[in-house]
Specification:
By secondary structure, the protein is α+β, with helices and mostly antiparallel strands. Helices cover 28% and strands 39% of the residues. It is elongated.
């Protein structure tokens, strides 16, 4: 590579570091979600964040997002949120991202052989905070497929 200035290299390095910081934010948050560590998970979100999830519509504000997700996932004894194929684009103090969700949960104690699962696309917006860390400002989640029974229905499925 010829002709690259120190400024060009520093800019590219900053973008790579920001992309890794975004990836780490999502991994830290969603591991906390699986442990039902709601405080750590919601710290990944901005105060004015919006969650847009199918039949739930738009949930606005960090406290409302936490309350809705915590209630919806309360009946799962254990769960795994897999975030796949993450890709981020950084523009200064703003970023966007996409990925895929594969969610698997045990629907009741002793029912590990019949989990509930679903998958679909994630679409994220992020903002760098005044302290320099990234926060999630908007998450859109689509459900492309489900398998098993979500009992009681909580994650966007209609009751039977």
């Amino acid at each position: 590579m010829t002709g690259a200035t120190d400024e060009d290299l520093l800019r590219r390095l900053r973008v790579l570091e920001d992309k890794e910081a975004l990836r780490q934010l999502m991994i830290r948050g969603w591991r906390a979600l699986d442990r039902k560590d709601w405080r750590t998970w919601i710290e990944c979100w901005a105060e004015d964040a919006v969650l847009d999830f199918g039949r739930w519509g738009e949930i606005q504000g960090r406290d409302a997002v936490r309350a809705k997700v915590e209630a919806a996932e309360a009946h799962f004894p254990s769960m795994q949120h897999h975030i796949l194929n993450m890709d981020f684009q950084v523009e200064g103090d703003r970023a966007t991202g996409i990925g895929y969700m594969w969610f698997v949960a045990v629907t009741g104690n002793g029912q590990t052989s019949s989990p509930y699962s679903m998958g679909g696309p994630y679409d994220w917006d992020f903002r760098r905070g005044p302290e320099g860390g990234w926060r999630l400002t908007r998450q859109r989640l689509g459900v492309w497929w489900t398998d098993g029974e979500d009992t009681p229905p909580s994650l966007g499925q209609s009751p039977a």
